[in-house]
Amino acid sequence: MESRVVPFTVLGRKDVGRVGGKNASLGELTTRLTAAGLRVPPGFATTAEAYEELLGAGDLRERVAAQIDRLHEGARLDEVGAAIRSLFLTRPLPAPLRDAVLTAYEKLAERTGIPKPEVAVRSSATAEDLPEASFAGQQETYLNVRGGEQLLDACRRCYASLFTDRAIDYRERMGYDHLAVALSVGVQLMVRSDLAGAGVAFTLDPESGFPEVVVVSAAWGLGETVVSGQVDPDEYTVFKPSLKDPALDPVIDVRIGAKRLKTVYADSGLTRTVDTPDGERGRRVLDDDEVRTLARWAVAVEEHYGCPMDLEWAKDGRTGELWIVQARPETVQSRRRATTLRRCRLTATPVPPPLVEGIAVGEAIGRGPVVALDTPVDLDRFPQGGVLVTTVTDPDWEPVMKRASAIVTDHGGRTSHAAIVSRELGVPAVVGTGDGTRLLRDGAPVTVSCAEGEHGRVFEGLLPYEETETDLADLPATRTHVMLNLADPSAAFRWWRLPADGVGLARLEFIVAHQVKVHPMALLHPERLDPHDRRLVDRLTEGYPDPGRYFVDRLAQGIARIAASRWPAPVIVRTSDFKTNEYAKLLGGRPFEPDEANPMIGWRGASRYYSPGYREGFALECRALRRVRDEMGLTNVVVMIPFCRTLGEADRVLGVMAEEGLVRGENGLRVYVMAEIPANIILAEEFAERFDGFSIGSNDLTQLTLGVDRDSEALAHVFDERDPAVVRSIALLAARAHAVDRPVGLCGQRPSDDPGFTALLVRARLDSISVAPDSFATVKQHVARAEAAEEGDAGESGAAGEPDGARGGDGRGAP
Question: How many whole angstroms separate alpha carbon 406 and alpha carbon 385?
């Protein structure tokens, strides 16, 4: 085999020491995974032996070693890096290496039939793209390289880039011997993505590490803008279990990025970055079929390597074909302890409005003075613990980034350079703020919070916060299932490590208010809106010929993220339970909502679903739920009807659902009812004939049992969920429901705050208790202690004197 240059077709993972992680991986993809349908552009790589030959020419090795010694003696990093790079750039490649590269290039030309094929020239270090370390972006890449002379120049520059300031700093930090790391140059046929699009794909959620999804990012043009963070890309989330069934649609979330820039070929060679035309910015880069193809390839690569992967892909604008151009092990989430949950929480009361918002990277909080920079600076000019604020980062920023307490950028998505490096460093970052550099004043103290899901926020001042770690392996097992209350789809994946028994309450109101942002009837009847609201609705639904489809898409995607986060455990989704005054506050809501003296006990819940004033809106909710269950395959979704006052109302709502394709029992569909009205308790057996389970809404049950407005300050001393009347109703419902094999759960805040109330629920033999994620560990321990106390007193009777009800006939704890 040629000692200096080898084609990808003879390389594999075993050759990392010879051609570096990147080129070894390209060889592995070429030789082992094309059978799975992957397309990998052909190419070749120089070897570590060739690099050693280069170092051995003249006194290059000795002169590089002398510069490294200077660094260890206190010389400035930028001076040492510049001196070493100059050593590589001022001398030609050894003749045998030069001839081998040109010969391989000529063979590539013969294979493609192109006299001077455009190629990508990439650096691949022998310590790069390993599971225990990521050198991604440390060395240079050159695109659209044409002809022998450009190729040789790009190779020389790649060799020099082994000693960029960022690469030297990284090896120092990771403990690598600079002269023990060799560099291979990969030469790969270009994919004409300048005429289409490119991006990256992770085989897990890069923020939370949730392993059941593939996340694909995409932008127009060459992929450099996505990796560097110059653009806010599209992001497509694919649910892996549904990907296995060709009859299902596994694309559970689609987010369209701004994509304001794109990189294309330059007329004189190499590349240039230009403004993206307005018509492309709001358009999807990939359709669902292309997203599915990339996701299938990504899963095949992950299964082959046996670890989470980070891939780069490109679409050829001439042929429409997709290609994988790089693959490396993911190195951040895969190294986290799966049993440890780290949590940060702002403790300021109240939390002030944010100065800027963007995409959260990491799940931490950082504080310090704003250090606003246009370009990287010397380390001694960046204070330890400062908050770096800039437009976009690239690898040159890394020595500065590791000194920062937090990072804020104007541009970039979750797969940008700033995001990738911030995760590896453990530094919180808010990327894609749009105007952070304009709104954050240099030197001003700020708090950067990435602890509330996907939305990162920057606050004025140094806000107090707390940080806790929970070892989930130490949580006790319980007979009573402990589930989660989730509302924000963007935060759902971050809780996947919790050993919860499902989701006991997912509220559609949050998704409608924050992701749909418009009253459903306003979408169906825009003629009833005033001109101002109609313009806003038109802008929101731009690109949707059917505005109702907009509602269904956004709602379905929100539900799907929550359902996917706990698959296959049950996820109980409550249909919308806004009060009329809350509905009226939605965009376009005022013409469709009456003024009520007491909305709390007015036109809400089940009464809306069959009413002419909202029947069409409920149909959209049903369409979204049906899409999630039947088309996306998330059959763990359980539908729950709130505020159902009468048996006749229950029958009418179930009839409407059936008309919209949601038939109880079909495709495993279960329908629950909120038990929050005394009528639900009194007629428990009759409601059980119509519904598959009960979930107690303790706030409404308390206010309607005691006749107290739960929002009344004057009667706050009367409102008590531990009142004997309320507790007895809970125990009575459990006994009656279990007698007819129906599970009963409770969702609410009280168990989180009150161990005594939790003990009452355990004694009442509830099947499940559902709480906020940040209370899960505490409530799990409360439940375990209550169960242990109950077992220690075998003669204990039910709560408030009621006899214990037997559990459901199958003994299930989850609803």
Answer: 8
